[in-house]
Specification:
Organism: Methanocaldococcus infernus (strain DSM 11812 / JCM 15783 / ME)
Largest sheet: 7 strands, mixed
CATH topology of the largest domain: Immunoglobulin-like
Structural class: alpha+beta
CATH class of the largest domain: Mainly Beta
Shape: flat
Radius of gyration: 27 Å
Strand content: 35-45%
Distance between the termini: 71 Å
Number of domains: 3
CATH architecture of the largest domain: Sandwich
Protein name: S-layer family protein
Pfam families: S_layer_C
Helix content: 10-25%
Number of helices: 9
Length: 453
């Protein structure tokens, strides 16, 4: 009898452990998306019960080693809500899943309003000065936030800085990109641009035609286009005029548009043919007028007078033109002059705009001050003899008591002068500002790209 009791007891214990294995916590870290960086603390609640908290600094919470832990085995499958400083609800919400580990983007200060017959969420983004307007048509706000195309937004931000400078190539820049959509697809896009000269003004007329197809009974698409500054703008869908979002006569059964800071945002709930017509006026410089008259060009070249002529990419040209360029000694200053006329020797300037740093932390005080923020730490030993690195970070800088803006800081530095020279020269050959570090080497009299040492 004791033998059977032992077997039954063993089976009972085994079944208990099989049914209730140890539960793992959910682990979260990430950023709070807002127009200006936020600070304080973030708490997580389930059924109004606090289940986690973490510090927020400059919009970031947690990192690769320090994260928010949520352990609440009795609440599996319930909704987690996140609050900034204990009171402001952020989006999206999540379902509590034990063992869930992820990086989050939580959106701050989203407003949802009733616009005639539909609810519209107004989503502020830190990257662009235009709020994204999303109709909640057959989709929840949380689902919309999952669909936001961050890379598309980043692309538009870079291009809108160039579109009014490099007008000759405007057709390459004013390409529509979808930020978010539900049941809509862009199947075809045509762009036509014509240029004329009237009274020393360049008149650029453009037309963008898109075939935007709704594959569902209800849905939407939000598109952004970097068209730059315009003097007139007309948007139609299905041959019907689209009104601005704040126009009292806006027809929400068609959609609307928002134009601000050179970015055109269009939200559609109707298909299929979308047309955008615009006119730009650009003053012609005396140099351009002379060039046109003496070389019979049909379109004057756009010049960046402070930028080295061997920089080919217009995105790089614009970035160099608008950036401060700082070197730490006379040798690096000469390298800097290979990018831009009149760079500066730095002591410990305050960064308030896009900036290019030439030289490593030993030579350049600004590089030394910011070195810990860059993904690759440059030293006299690393990346090594004649080797350098090209890397970029983004900083939120304070420009007034209550106003911050995001700037790019590009580092071109090496373990020695030849590594720094390689970084400068190779950077000039790129098409875009690199998001990830690039390692280079000065070899056989030229800069070459290499694998990470």
């Amino acid at each position: 009898m004791k033998k059977y009791v032992g077997i039954i007891l063993l089976l009972f214990i085994s079944s208990v452990f099989a049914i209730t294995p140890p539960s793992l916590p959910a682990v979260y870290y990430g950023e709070i998306v807002s127009i200006t960086p936020v600070n304080g603390y973030l708490i997580a609640k389930i059924d109004n019960k606090v289940v986690g908290n973490i510090t927020v600094k400059n919009g970031k919470f947690g990192n690769s080693t320090y994260k928010m832990l949520i352990y609440s085995p009795s609440d599996v499958g319930k909704t987690i809500k996140f609050y900034l400083n204990g009171s402001t609800l952020l989006h999206p919400t999540l379902k509590y899943i034990p063992g869930d580990v992820r990086e989050l983007k939580l959106y701050y200060n989203i407003k949802t309003i009733k616009k005639k017959n539909i609810n519209v969420s107004i989503i502020p983004l830190k990257e662009i000065p235009v709020n994204i307007t999303i109709p909640l048509v057959n989709v929840s706000l949380d689902k919309v936030l999952e669909k936001i195309n961050e890379s598309a937004i980043e692309k538009v931000i870079n291009v809108v800085k160039v579109v009014d400078v490099d007008v000759e190539n405007i057709s390459e820049y004013i390409k529509p990109v979808a930020v978010a959509s539900e049941g809509f697809n862009i199947t075809k896009t045509d762009t036509n641009v014509n240029e004329t000269i009237v009274n020393n003004k360049k008149i650029v007329k453009g037309k963008i035609t898109m075939n935007v197809v709704n594959t569902s009974k209800k849905g939407f698409i939000t598109i952004i286009i970097p068209i730059g500054n315009v003097v007139s703008l007309n948007v139609t869908v299905d041959n019907k005029e689209l009104k601005e979002f704040n126009d009292p006569e806006v027809n929400t059964s068609l959609g609307w548009y928002v134009y601000q800071e050179g970015i055109l945002e269009i939200t559609l709930v109707k298909d299929p043919i979308l047309e955008v017509e615009f006119v730009k006026e650009i003053n012609i410089t005396k140099e351009e007028t002379y060039e046109r008259r003496n070389t019979w060009k049909t379109s004057p070249a756009i010049r960046y007078h402070d930028v080295a002529e061997d920089v080919k990419s217009y995105i790089l040209k614009t970035f160099i033109q608008v950036s401060n360029v700082y070197a730490g000694n006379d040798i690096d200053l000469n390298f800097a002059k290979e990018l831009k006329k009149n760079p500066a020797l730095t002591t410990n300037e305050k960064i308030t705009k896009d900036t290019i740093l030439i030289g490593g932390p030993v030579a350049n005080p600004l590089t030394k001050k910011l070195m810990d923020k860059f993904p690759i730490k440059v030293t006299n030993e690393y990346p090594g003899k004649n080797k350098g690195v090209i890397e970029m970070i983004k900083l939120n800088v304070k420009i007034s008591d209550h106003l911050y803006k995001e700037v790019k800081v590009l580092l071109l530095a090496g373990s020695d002068r030849w590594g720094t020279k390689a970084a400068v020269e190779y950077f000039k050959t790129l098409d875009n500002i690199p998001e990830e570090p690039i390692f280079v080497e000065w070899k056989d009299g030229k800069a070459v790209r290499i694998e990470k040492p």
